[in-house]
Amino acid sequence: MSRGVFIDHYAALELKPGAPPEEVRRAFRRLAKTHHPDKSGDALRFHEIYTAYRLLTEPVARVSYDKQYILFKRAELWNARRKSIPVSRMIIPTTVAALARRGLLRPKFRGKDRRFHLKVDYDMELPLLEEEFQMPLLVPVPVTIRNLCPECSGSDSHCGVCGGKGSYKSGGVFKLQLDGGLTHGQIIEISLHGVRPAPASYYKKRKIRIKISRAS
User: Fold this and answer.
1) Overall number of domains in the chain
2) Considering the domain boundaries, does residue 122 fall inside one?
3) How far apart are CA 19 and CA 70, in angstroms?
4) Which end of the chain is less enclosed by CB atoms within 10 A, N or C?
5) Residue 158 above 80 pLDDT?
6) Residue 210 pairs with which residues in a beta bridge?
7) Which of 168, 1, 162 is nearest to 72 (CA)?
């Protein structure tokens, strides 16, 4: 069982969870007759069957595996309930209209200055329905991606493709998983430091703060 991947050994032997050792042995013998390489079977499938058989008939290893199996199934059930939030739900507080009303579109104002004058300490707001506060959610967070120039990789100030800028911007979505237990007014901070959407690109912002609110 590799890191981050859970192998269902019961499914490999076509058994229900908790099957007694003798039933495991019978299942192995039955499947081995079909999948053993000496019977012109699939060697990879036989290896899967044999690995499951060895683990599920070794008492100490099986106790440890069964504990992990229960946790895996609980997580699988929880994730199956995960609700996708549409990206249109996200609210950007520093819209052009809001900035214009405050006279904050002048060049000297940086993004953090605008947020200060607008009295916000977050980048986006996510309004949730009442039942969504306790649900597992999949939230698409709109992000700006900086891509290195495919021609010069940002190393040629005279590049004819990027005009010497070295990179170009594009829009994207960062998929954020939330496991419930959220509260109105809560600020969720996402660190994108060291995270790359692709080998030759990176997120323009290293940190994104999202405010959770109650949908009106």
Assistant:
1) 2
2) yes
3) 14
4) C
5) yes
6) 124, 188
7) 1
Q: Residue 162 has which token pair? A: 């990027």
Here the tokens at position 113 are 């200055």
Q: In what order do the strands lie in the sheet with 124-128?
A: 124-128, 207-214, 187-191
Same-domain status, 175 and 151: yes
CATH of the domain at 103: 2.60.260.20
- Can you tell me the distance from the alpha carbon of 13 to that of 55, in angstroms, rounded to the nearest whole number? 11
On whether the pTM is more than 0.70, the answer is: no
Strands (E), 149-206: 167-178, 187-191, 201-203
What domain range is 143 assigned to? 87-214
Task: Indicate the SS3 state at residue 57.
Answer: coil
Within a domain: 147 = yes
What is the distance between the alpha carbons of residues 171 and 156, in angstroms, rounded to a whole number?
24
What confidence tens digit (pLDDT) does each residue in 165-202 have? Answer: 888 888 889 999 998 899 999 999 999 988 888 888 88
And the tokens for 75? 């997580």
Q: Quick count: other Cβ atoms within 10 Å of Cβ 74?
A: 10
In CATH, what number is assigned to the domain containing residue 58?
Answer: 1.10.287.110
Note whether 101 and 114 are within 8 A (CB).
Answer: no
CA 194 – CA 144 distance, rounded (Å)? 15
Indicate the residue among 24, 46, 80 that finishes a domain: 80
**CA-CA distance, 175 to 137, in Å (whole number)?**
10
